[in-house]
Design goal:
The structure holds 2 protein chains of 2 kinds. By secondary structure, chain A is mainly α. Chain B has one domain. The chains are: A mainly alpha, B mainly alpha. At the A-B interface, helix 3 of A face helix 7 and helix 8 of B.
């Protein structure tokens, strides 16, 4: 109660939400991109699968966007 | 000068994540995204009808080539997803339509006069159609209904369609649980399709609004790079929406043709 009156906890909550919600998709997209480039490095024919890699990027990205959207709920 | 002080004293950028009602026609409340949706629908309809009338067998120079190239690109991706060429020919018109509808709606939403700039009753007058969960949910639901209808028709009946969820006999409890889990993930596809598109467009609008707020007088300059990023991201989202729905359909259709190959 004292903490809630002293500082604006909503801002801390939003910051933590962004930090936690973006770190996962960040790692995920990094892994997808890294593995795609590794596959291309081993086998240059694999470069045609960029479209599939982008689909997985979009799937991972959704979770980051969900975290971003939920900061508008915190008041 | 007074306007500048007012800007500095502002508490923050005004953003909306949901559309707002701007006026009523009779009993029906018209939201800003619905209003702009009708405008963009008419614009898209006119543009594409003109493009379809003007296209010839021998390609001409000009913006028409862009339409041709995009159509061919989507047709190619649909045809590579389906193993059977005739099946791909049957289903590709819907997916090309879907892609163009989403792409042009997203791009029309990036025009400078659309967004938080002009407001009426506290809400922006024009809001991109796809930045509304109702719109994207309708798109996702119609797409999935079409996919379910076509896949039931392709598998030759409802029971045969349900069979493709199970890897083995449903009497085995492990396969039964896996099959039921597969069915539940199938239902969430509508939500994931619609939420992905909605959040990408709505958050893009918010990012542009935030950066044009930070720019004060130089708002066009600060918002420009993010608008250019959005130009790419929205095109990618339209592609992903299309290709994911193609894949949901292709899984069932290809599964069926594999079975045929095994038995004959």
């Amino acid at each position: 109660m004292i903490l809630a009156t002293a500082v604006n906890t909503a801002i801390i909550a939003k910051g933590l939400m962004i930090a936690g919600g973006f770190i996962g998709p960040g790692i995920g997209i990094g892994l997808i991109g890294g593995n795609y480039l590794q596959a291309v490095g081993r086998n240059p024919e694999a470069a045609k699968f960029l479209g599939q890699a982008l689909i997985f990027v979009a799937i991972v990205e959704l979770f980051g966007l969900l975290a971003f959207a939920s900061i508008f709920i915190v008041k | 000068m007074l306007g500048m002080f007012k800007l500095i004293a502002d508490s923050g950028p005004i953003v909306h994540i949901a559309p707002g009602v701007i006026f009523h026609i009779g009993k029906y409340a018209i939201t800003n995204s619905e209003f702009y949706g009708w405008i963009s629908l008419i614009v898209i309809f006119i543009l594409l009808v003109i493009a379809a009338r003007k296209i010839t067998i021998f390609p001409k120079k000009g913006p028409l080539q862009l339409v041709e190239v995009t159509t061919e690109f989507i047709i190619n991706t649909v045809e590579t997803s389906f193993e059977d060429k005739d099946k791909a020919k049957k289903y590709r018109p819907y997916f090309v339509t879907l892609f163009f509808f989403i792409l042009l709606n997203n791009w029309l939403g990036l025009l400078p006069f659309v967004g938080e700039g002009f407001t009426l009753m506290g809400f922006p007058i024009l809001r991109p159609f796809t930045a509304d969960l109702n719109a994207t949910f309708a798109m996702g639901a119609i797409t999935m209904i079409y996919v379910y209808y076509s896949s039931i028709k392709e598998s030759g009946g409802f029971i045969d369609y349900l069979k493709h969820f199970f890897v083995g006999s449903p009497k085995n409890p492990l396969f039964l649980i896996i099959g039921i889990l597969e069915m539940i993930t199938d239902i969430t596809r509508v939500l994931s399709l619609s939420l992905r598109l909605f959040l990408n467009i709505a958050i893009g609008e918010i990012v542009i609004a935030v950066f044009s707020y930070l720019g004060h007088i130089l708002a066009p300059l600060t918002a420009l790079p993010f608008t250019l990023i959005e130009l790419f991201v929205t095109a990618l989202q339209a592609y992903i929406f299309t290709i994911l729905s193609v894949m949901y359909l292709a899984i069932v259709v290809n599964h069926k043709s594999e079975e045929h190959a095994e038995t004959t």
